[in-house]
Design a protein that fits this description.
Layout: E1 4-5, E2 11-13, E3 18-22, E4 25-29, E5 36-38, E6 45-47, E7 50-57, E8 60-68, E9 76-84, E10 87-96, E11 99-108, E12 110-111, E13 114-117, E14 124-132, E15 135-141, E16 149-154, E17 160-168, E18 176-185
Antiparallel strand pairs: 1-18, 2-7, 3-4, 4-18, 5-6, 7-17, 8-14, 8-18, 9-10, 9-17, 10-11, 11-12, 11-13, 14-15, 15-16
Length: 196
């Protein structure tokens, strides 16, 4: 799959009612009460968020540009890497306590949640995920060139993964999201502190 670009080969988990692809841009309007979450704190499990995925090899780097305007609590858009319904990570911007937060949820049977204020333009940002040898490295970028580390965590080893755009609106419907610049390549081998 090295060199895969765009959205031609994707499949939906929870296809939204309103979406389209044009000129290698995926446009999505979220359905009502959509989310990915398992158990922690709230006690419920949700697997209803929109996820447009392609299959990857067992080691890869994926990049994606995300544009959206977050208006209500828990509005979110970003990238998901998924092994199964009980093993996945989602990352992106999520509106929480009135602010756009850089957010990630790692799930291994139960979900965790990590957030921090995002200091750049949350309406237009990039994500990069690298999976290799049981480790997942998440990076976020304001310009697609400078890639600070967002998260480093253990991740299940698998022969292939599902990866792609993700968006949810647990409290409403109607978040407009534009995804673009979607690429998947072999796992990059850059030093952890190489932010290029």
């Amino acid at each position: 799959m090295a060199g895969h670009v765009g959205f031609d080969d994707g499949i939906w988990l929870n296809e939204p009612a309103d979406w389209r692809i044009d000129s290698d841009h995926l446009h999505v309007v979220t359905d009502k009460a959509t989310d990915f979450w398992r158990e922690t704190h709230y006690g419920f499990t949700r697997d209803t968020g929109h996820f447009y995925s392609v299959k990857t090899p067992g080691a890869f780097t994926a990049q994606l540009r995300i544009r959206a305007r977050y208006e209500q609590l828990y509005d979110q858009a970003g990238l998901m890497v998924r092994v199964s319904a009980t093993q996945w990570i989602k990352a992106g911007i999520e509106l929480s306590d009135g602010l756009p937060m850089v957010s990630s949820v790692l799930t291994s049977n139960q979900s965790d949640w990590s957030t921090a204020p995002y200091g750049d333009d949350a309406s237009d940002f990039w994500l990069r995920a690298t999976v290799k040898e049981g480790v997942l490295r998440l990076q976020v970028s304001a310009d697609g060139m400078h890639w600070p580390l967002m998260r480093l965590c253990p991740f299940p080893v698998a022969s292939s993964y599902s990866v792609g755009p993700m968006c949810c609106t647990p409290e409403r419907a109607g978040l407009n999201v534009e995804f673009s610049d979607f690429t998947i390549s072999g796992a990059m081998s850059k030093d952890l502190h190489d932010l290029s």
